[in-house]
Write a structure and sequence with these properties.
about 130 residues; alpha+beta; 5-stranded mixed β-sheet
Length: about 130
């Protein structure tokens, strides 16, 4: 039985909204490192830089660009502010990132308070009595 050990240097990547963290090789994309381990946190689309689903902001740490980033999804101004596509960059150091792409809402959406649900239910019941 042959064992294959990955000896590439790895650094820690943390997704701020979920607290999920995972080790990622310094020569593989932030997204690919997460997907390879079956982890969740960064939304995945085409994994090729074309869809913009994996748009993130690098909050701490630094990254190495692996390929061109589509200006349709990340402007030069955004890139200057640490915004990039997780499929197009690899961690150079430990990284903390925030998901800001198309699927950011599930992380920041808060459920409505219970009182709001009761008010809606009462209003519906009253309309049914008419």
């Amino acid at each position: 039985m042959a064992f294959s050990f990955d000896s590439r240097p790895k650094v820690n990547v943390c997704v701020a909204q979920t607290g999920e963290s995972y080790p990622c090789a310094t020569n593989e994309s932030l997204l690919k490192g997460m997907l390879k381990l079956g982890r969740k946190g960064i939304p995945a689309g085409c994994v090729n830089g074309g869809c913009g689903v994996c748009k993130v902001r690098i909050v701490e740490g630094s990254v190495t660009v692996l390929g061109p980033v589509s200006r349709a999804h990340v402007s030069a101004e955004e890139e200057g502010c640490g915004i990039t596509l997780a499929c197009r960059v690899a961690p150079a150091t430990a990284v903390r990132l925030e998901v800001i792409g198309k699927l950011e809402k599930p992380f920041s959406k808060r459920p409505a308070p219970a009182a709001d649900h009761r008010a809606t239910l009462q209003m519906t019941q009253q309309q049914g009595d008419m």
